[in-house]
Amino acid sequence: MPKSKRSQRITISKSSKKLKANRGLELKQELVKKIRSRFDECSHLFVVRLYNERTEKLQTVRAHFPPSESSFFFFGKNRVMQLALGRTPATEYLPSLAKISPYLVGKVGLMLTNRSPQEVLEYFNKLEMQDYARAGNHVKETVVIDEGPLDGFQHTMEPLLRSLGLMTTLKKGIIHLLQPYTICSKGDVLTPEQAKLLKLFQRPLAQFKIKVKAHWNKKNEQVQVFDLQDEDDEDADQEAEEMIEQDDEN
């Protein structure tokens, strides 16, 4: 008796991988459509470079350039954004957009807006927000904690501080550092433990900022490129083809 086709086995792992791949393709196609749709209402495109990106601080920037005023930010894989613009003159969505694609490398995103280039550049040139450095960041200063009582720490935190490498003891319910401790030295690549200590001792060493790498003007189809000389200083941010896993517009 022949086997019933309805009783065939299906490998769940293979089918789930296929579904995941299809979903990934759909998301990429959706991002391309979203980017291209905004060219109908926006006259300027900016490639923006992010340093020490933080979601909550990026929301502040989005609030300053809201979608209600025809300003839109896009963050996704650089190759997908290149596809939306076009990598060659033959495939570019609008004239001269292919000249922008080479600058979609590193921690970058796209900003489409009707705001004037002068206003956008002025805002980003002034934008700097302090934050705590993460593991993997290079630090530009040395942080040393002096020996003695540690103000602002409850006695229950003493085991945690010890586990992070500090020589501490409790005296009458107050944590004391038995000897000076260097959390980090200038030029260090932070470990998770160092990053945690910097946050515990409230020493923000990172700065969230955004700089413009390139600008495209829809009216005259001209491209302007900006030299970011400090780009190589942010080695921890050089993940070549990855951006924030966020490709919504809000």
UniProtKB/TrEMBL annotation:
Cellular component GO terms, alphabetical: cytoplasm; nucleolus; preribosome, large subunit precursor
Pfam family, one: RL10P_insert
Keywords for the protein's UniProt record, in alphabetical order: Cytoplasm, Nucleus, Ribosome biogenesis
Stored CDD domains: Ribosomal_P0_like
GO biological process, one term: nuclear-transcribed mRNA catabolic process
Signal sequence bounds: none
Domain of life of the source: Eukaryota
Tagged with keyword Transport: no
Entry's Gene Ontology molecular function annotations: RNA binding
Region of interest called Disordered, as start-end residue ranges on this chain: 225-250
Protein name in the entry: Ribosome assembly factor mrt4
Annotated Acidic residues bias: 228-250
Cellular compartment(s): Cytoplasm; Nucleus, Nucleolus
UniProt family annotation: Belongs to the universal ribosomal protein uL10 family.
Chain's role: Component of the ribosome assembly machinery. Nuclear paralog of the ribosomal protein P0, it binds pre-60S subunits at an early stage of assembly in the nucleolus, and is replaced by P0 in cytoplasmic pre-60S subunits and mature 80S ribosomes.
Quaternary assembly: Associates with the pre-60S ribosomal particle.
Residue ranges occupied by any Large ribosomal subunit protein uL10-like insertion domain in the UniProt entry: 133-201
